[in-house]
Every structure is written in structure tokens, then in C-alpha cells.
Amino acid sequence: MINVIGLGYIGLPTALMLAASGNDVLGTDINEAVIAALRRRELPFFETGLTELFAKARHKGIRFSLDLENAGIYIIAVPTPYDSQSKKVDMSFVIAAFEGIQNICPENAIVVIESTVSPGSIDRAIRPLLSKNIRLAHAPERIIPGNMLFELCNNARIIGADDSDTEYTLKELYSSFCTGEIIPTDIKTAEMTKVVENTYRDINIAFANELAKICHYGGMDVYEIIRMANKHPRVNILQPGPGVGGHCIAVDPWFLVGDYPGLANIVLAARKINDSMPEFVLERIREIMKLENIKDPRQVGLYGLTYKDNIDDTRQSPTLQLLACMREHLAPALKCYDPKIKERIVENQCFSLKDFLSGLDMIVIMTAHDEIIEQYRHLHDKIVLDTHNALPKGNNVYALTRSLTASCQK
Ligand code: SAJ
């Protein structure tokens, strides 16, 4: 039996996929509401294809419980935040899960940690806790919200373990649903590889964001420049935006900064650039309000609360960062709306596009959900700041950067 611990964005799809592929699976979580919802056959979040997978997993007998059970393999997929002071990984959720497992598991059980941790964390924080024979492993998750199920089945998988027997058992387990390459390695290398992947992306997004700022002040069209530069066979610049959100890219690079201060220099610079983007959007809003003679901030609304398009995850989202920044300046909360968020999470939140748009002169596209791209005609009488360059160009549409090219005069 496999006991998956932590039924969030990673643990739940993994548990369902394992069950749907014929494994005997128990999903556990400390959150009673999550377990109750799953037992009522309700999913706690949206992800493409998850409803169908849930039905399949239920049919194959997946169970959900608040309590751990005796199992041969445990998979831990709990959050690993960072300590805001030291920037080091906060292992407390992983440690709590591990201690719970150790109280109940048989000798020789395998405990796989899927949560992202900084290199050396398992040796430092988990190994010293061992009081019986448990085989530790690290199989970092690598799936992207919005395309999780496809990536769960197709991405290559890294498995860090101490011995070849554990490696073999886990290779068998993961290949029950994953057709991607399964690469065995040691635990610390697996830890570092995962952190490096997200740090690589953070640095590359930061480069695009820094170019956006340079082009803004230099009067150049960053999108056109990136488009043309990317025609070079060895250049592939990402897209600038209002900042980097989510529980991964905005978090994991800090682990390297926390553990290797003085060495992780590009990493730190990239974090700072990406974290500065919501403030840059705020400056851009002020600039456009002045140009368009919009006096009252209550006439400005933020479209999108999630950290990226077409998902319902708001963790560390640029919009929430921007609102926090406004609060620090004691500015009144702007009107907000997100079609994916049905519960109130911020002040002044609307629950329909119509309510949101009424009375506003300026809309800031913080998340480019399909809804607004499809219904963009409703914005014809508004001033729009499109931070993702997602909408068709028009005289009423400003880009994240001021541009002097013919396609976008503003
Ligand atoms: N973003 C930009 N410009 C871009 C691309 C992204 O500003 O060109 C922003 C997004 O709007 C978003 C943030 O970056 O706010 C992160 O989004 P993302 O789609 O790049 O990544 P995540 O955080 O959803 O998922 C990442 C993935 N890692 C990599 O691509 C290296 C995923 O594979 C990992 O499994 C996941 O982190 C994780 O859990 O670690």
C-alpha cells in the first residue's frame, strides 16, 4: 500500500494517478475540510482532467483519511516555505509528516519526499530523526499547474535514493504511470537539481523583466526586441510580466540564497528584480492615470488574482503582492476581480466581470485568463494596462513598457 501525505496541488494528483494506475493508495491530510470534501467526491481545486482522474481513482478504490496507516511506501508532498528572515527552507511540515510516519510504519518502509527542499536538507533535518530502519528517498515533483496531468505522465523523473534496491522499487512504482525517463541519483543531487530548475526559470524571467524596465526608460518596445532576438538560434528570452508568483519559482531560489549567501549572487539579483515588478506596475498605473487624467484610484481595477492564467492558485500572486505594496503606502484597496476565484480573499473583490467593469475607467490586466482575451470587446471604452501583452493592440491599450514603435504608440 502507498500512503500519500499532503493532498494539495502535488499530492492529490499524484495519489489519484497512482490509484488510477492500479496501486493501492491511501491519501492523508491534516486538513479535515480537505478529507471531508474528497470523501464527498469534491475536488479542493481545479486542474484540467482532474475530475476524470478522480472518478477513475475512486473506481479503483482510493481512500482518504486524516490518519496515516501501515504502508510499504509513504510519499510526502507537504509545503516547504522559506523562513522570511534567514531565507532557509522551513522543513517543519516535512518533519511533522516524517515523525507521524515513523510512529506507524513497518521496518524497511520507504519514505519518499516529493516536496522541494534545499540540497542537504534531508541529511540535515530528517536522517538524524531516524529511530528505525527506514529507507529515505527524494523524488522532486516537476509538474506545472495548468498541465499537471500531462507532465505527471510525461516528464522525466529524478529519484534520489541511498541504495539500488530502493531505486529499483521506486522506479517500478513511478513507471506505473510515468512514461518519461526515470533517472536514479543520490538524494542531495536530486534536491539540488530541482532547486536549480526553478532558479533557472526565475533568473530567465528576471532577465525579461529587467529588459522591460530598461526598454521602458529607454523608449524601446521590449516585446518586439525579444521577438526579434529570439530569432537567433541560441537565444530564447522569456516574457516580462507583473512579477513572479506561485509556491515554487518565487520560493525555491531563496533556499540557495539562504544556504550560500555571498555565492548565490545572480540568484539573489533575480529574486529582487522579480519581486520589484508589482511596484513597477504600480508606478506604471500612476503614470498612465496622469496621462489619461484619471484622478481617483477608485476608478482603477485589477483583473486577475491568481499567479498565472487559467488556474485558481493565488499563492504569492503578483496581484496580492501589488495590493500588499499599496497597503504599505496606506493607499485604498483597488477593485479586483478574478473569474477563477469564487470566495472573497481581498477587499473590494467583485464576482462578475460586469460588476467589476462598472464605474471603472482603467483596467489593469494582471492575469491573462482566457475569459478576458475572449471578452476583450467589453474593454473598448476603458483605458487598459496589459501587463502580459496578451490583448490585441488598440489606442486604449498600454503595454507594461512605454513603446515608441508604430504598433503601440504609448
Ligand atoms: N512568468 C513570467 N514570464 C514568463 C513565464 C512565467 O513572468 O515568461 C511568471 C508567471 O506568470 C508566474 C510565474 O512566472 O507568475 C511562475 O509561473 P511558471 O508557469 O513559470 O511556473 P510554476 O511556478 O507554475 O511551476 C514551476 C515549474 N518549474 C519550471 O518550469 C522550471 C514546474 O515545472 C515546477 O514543478 C513547479 O514550478 C514547482 O512545483 O516547483
Describe the structure.
This protein is 39% helix and 13% strand. The protein has 410 residues and is an alpha/beta fold. It has an eight-stranded mixed sheet, with helices on both faces. The protein has a six-stranded parallel sheet with strand order 11-10-9-12-13-14. Strand 4 (73-76), helix 4 (92-104) and strand 5 form a beta-alpha-beta unit. The longest helix is centred in the middle third of the chain and has 32 residues, at 187-218.
Key terms:
globular; 14 helices; eight-stranded mixed β-sheet; six-stranded parallel β-sheet; disordered C terminus; alpha/beta; single chain; 410 residues; binds ligand SAJ
Number of strand segments: 14
Strand content: 5-15%
Q: Between the first and last Cα atoms, what is the distance in angstroms?
A: 60 Å
Bound molecules: ligand SAJ
The average pLDDT value, as a whole number, equals 95
Rg over CA atoms: 23 Å
